[in-house]
UniProtKB/TrEMBL annotation, chains A, B:
A molecular-function term among this protein's GO annotations: 4-aminobutyrate:2-oxoglutarate transaminase activity
Annotated GO biological process: gamma-aminobutyric acid catabolic process
Family: Belongs to the class-III pyridoxal-phosphate-dependent aminotransferase family.
Taxon lineage: Eukaryota, Fungi, Dikarya, Basidiomycota, Ustilaginomycotina
Region ranges (Disordered): 30-50
Species the sequence originates in: Pseudomicrostroma glucosiphilum
One Pfam family it belongs to: Aminotran_3
UniProt protein name: 4-aminobutyrate aminotransferase
GO cellular component, one term: mitochondrion
Length: 501, 501
């Protein structure tokens, strides 16, 4: 079925004079009609996955665990906002490979760069960056990951890594080292400290902790998983550090309608953070707090800029570092390059981690978080020049096409549509969030069962959206998500809701 | 200075009739004279790093920690076995980016693949493999990482990851899950288990352990670092799990001259492993033992095939999984594709991890190590098709040029040279190891200070070798290391030793 030429009440919501004018601007820039992409979703099979996808996934399941796979994709046929599966079904992708695709499938400018000597050479001659960096490594960083328009304000340093989990864990290590350095007051290690470190025992391997928030997600390796509190399926049977976690503020949505009571709840949590840091001082002192600007796997849980400013205040008062995990929120999707820009912090966070849409991973940090000696925070590859070149080109493309402000503007329109549908289908579309967060939006269904049905209903109509937490639908469109896609999304969601209601 | 045309006694050691015949064969295949590579090292500056490298590294140090860097390289100018630094010094690279380069710098066949549509597309359209795998993912695996000639015998399954640490930690997770599954006898989780997992507490986050060996190295994230026991600098100030570690057998080298006493020492350690597993049963049961075939960062410490067969026996008897960490030893450098092939195990290990020379990372495993449900061992990218394509091409190149048997044969010659130098410089070249391990060889100097001087002496003459452990020199030449390079190495080592003696 094709939605390209159909029309609906929800779609018409986007057709104000203002949005028409905007659409013209965007089309001129090449979006809304992303060059060469399909005109709309097209599902040919009676179910998704279709028989060919099923066969591919069954085959893969023989050699690894692919029970989680939704469909197998023909990547060569994907384009712009659209993916094509093994059965030639075309889907509008509003999930973006778990929020990691930014500037579109088969982006010609990116693939052109991929075929340059610079990229081919970087990919096939991967250095051990910490020992033999390329002569132009600083230039690559400065033109991309460390570009003035990109690098978070106040953070001069960068540590590159390979994925979100390794980025976060390397930042944790830096915080633990800096915390102990400050406590010791010097950079020498006595014999007892050195020897005990080799036995995984204090004082060399100190009993310190990372503080995180309940329902938060920071990765799935042993350190990052110890700060992840999303779902049992992520954590069961894996040994974890005894580290503290505090409530995430239980806010009422939409935020702007419940400011007073939300403020109170946020203050309750801030007090809890303070108390927890104090209580753990004798048990396992908290070296750092790690926090997502929007809890992205755990249910799209938001908090206000006020909350984060207070958190920064408390961490400074208590001498605890603050890591902002922007692995999912970073790189434009929230309508600013970094979600934490909106907080207007008087003092920057100590570290900001990134991955996903950047394609390269790592964290920005203060000078204080530099280790006291070389080889302390180190590994073989220390990042990847090929991925750093890719990040440089993604950034260039985002800036050339003003995709961050485009996404902010698309977010406003997306929110209007969801607000209208929420008033008409209040049990299926509730607790809207992300009004001012670009297209990084979400809503709840009344139950998890309804949420699953809604996601499946969208999928059979050729629109891929994700779930998060217990009953949230999370939208993670690409940064090139335009007016036409918005129209299709609105029509598809409405048709799904109509069928479910 | 150039060594290309000089001659020495050490070099002449390689010139037996047999080796001459062999060299002819290798040259015919394109090695010994790797196409287009420099004829020898050429150091133009009075010290290494030279002024230009120093300037590049100083500049990099402004934005990150590059105190560990030796020289900055001009990667476009590197070729075959040789790297060219910022000052145009040419070095014979026998360290290979910490043992991660296999088939030569600027390998034309690899770079040709990098520029294909297949690779460019894979690199710039990175999937979330666990959710939307490419239709040809199984084919990519089967032609490369899972190829019959590559996949360790008895291990049908593969889990792909991003680096050695993430490969090992994902394998650890699989072992913990399988261990608990076996203990429970079913795949259901009760409410108490689910709830406690969210609090990082038992029974949901059980107090289990991984057993590793002292002086071993398995990575630097929180789980892998807890099994790493190489050096304090790797571990200081980082919280660690209270997990057991047992002695590595303190063997006498060369192994073949001390078989009886080494056997006794290995049996002592095997008994220690058994005891430790028993002792920890009430404290934190050991779910798995992780072991390197050759302890590579911790000092190039070897053990005999007998030791590993006994270790496999004990792990089976005790119901403990066995992970073989082939991150540094894998992919041909030891003269077999996997170092553990030489053990002739009656039962394969439960998991074998890889990274470095494969450029792709992950672990092979048994069906028993598949998680009981989807999403239990999962992350966003789940590996990288671009790196899997690169691995496929590396494997194809290795096989087309018989580089594994070539490396075995080069190892024999390399060992002869080291044996001769050892008899002439017994304090500076002692405890030779790796006679039957391809070019994956090492020797000790009497002291760490002498080792550092030797490595520096080689470096100023344009040959890069590494150190490991307290006083070992580790050799990690590429798989394309040929007769000519061996000659240069022999001459350079001898000149260095002569100067030091």
């Amino acid at each position: 079925m094709t939605f390209a030429s159909s029309s609906s009440a929800a779609a018409s919501l986007t057709r104000t004079a203002a949005s028409r004018a905007q659409a013209t601007v965007l089309r001129r820039r090449g979006f809304g009609t992303y060059p060469g992409q399909p005109s709309g979703p097209n599902v040919l099979t009676s179910s998704v996955p279709g028989p060919k996808s099923k066969a591919v996934l069954d085959d893969l399941n023989q050699v690894g665990d692919f029970r989680t796979a939704i469909v197998a994709l023909q990547y060569p046929k994907c384009k712009g906002n659209y993916v094509v599966d093994a059965d030639d079904n075309t889907h509008l992708d509003m999930f973006g490979q778990i929020a990691s695709i930014s500037v579109g499938y088969r982006n010609e400018e990116l693939e052109k760069v991929a075929r340059t000597e610079e990229f081919a050479m970087a990919a096939m001659n991967r250095p051990a960056l910490g020992v033999f960096p390329p002569v132009d490594w600083r230039a690559t960083l400065d033109a991309g990951l460390r570009k003035d328009s990109v690098r978070p304000r106040g953070l001069s340093q960068i540590f590159t890594a390979n994925c979100g989990s390794t980025a976060n864990e390397s930042a944790y290590k830096a915080c633990f080292m800096a915390y102990m350095h400050r406590k010791r007051g010097h950079s020498d290690f006595d014999q007892k400290t050195m020897a005990s470190s080799m036995d995984n025992a204090a004082p060399g391997a100190p009993t310190l902790s990372m503080l995180s928030f309940k329902t938060g997600f920071h990765g799935r390796l042993f350190g990052s998983l110890s700060t992840t509190r999303s779902k049992p399926i992520h954590k069961l049977d894996i040994p974890a550090f005894d580290w503290p976690a505090v409530d995430w503020p239980a806010l009422k949505y939409p935020l702007e309608e419940h400011e007073a009571e939300n403020r109170k709840e946020e203050e309750r949590v801030i007090a809890l953070v303070e108390e927890t840091i104090e209580q753990w001082e004798t048990k396992a002192p908290v070296a750092a707090v790690v926090v997502e600007p929007i809890q992205s796997e755990g249910g799209d849980n938001h908090a206000s800029p006020h909350f984060f400013r207070r958190l920064r205040e408390v961490t400074i008062q208590k001498g605890v570092y603050m890591i902002v995990d922007e692995v999912q929120t970073g790189v434009g999707a929230t309508g600013t390059f970094w979600a934490h820009e909106k907080w207007d912090l008087p003092t920057p966070p100590d570290a900001v981690s990134f991955s996903k849409k950047m394609q390269a991973a790592g964290y920005y940090h203060t000078e204080e978080l530099r280790p006291s000696a070389g080889y302390r925070n180190f590994n073989t590859w220390m990042g990847d020049p090929a991925r750093a070149i890719q990040a440089r080109e993604i950034i260039r493309y985002i800036e050339a096409h003003s995709l961050v402000s485009h996404t902010a503007s698309m977010g406003t329109q997306l929110h209007s549509i969801l607000a209208s549908l929420s008033s008409r289908y209040p049990t299926l579309v509730q607790n809207l969030r992300g009004k001012t967060e670009g297209t990084f939006q979400a809503f709840d269904c009344e139950t998890g069962k309804e949420r699953d049905a809604l996601v499946a209903g969208m999928r059979k109509r050729g629109v891929l959206v994700g779930g998060s937490g217990e009953r949230a639908v999370r939208l993670r469109p690409l940064l090139i998500f335009g007016e036409k896609e918005l129209e299709i999304f609105a029509e598809t969601l409405e048709a799904t809701l109509k069928e479910m209601a």
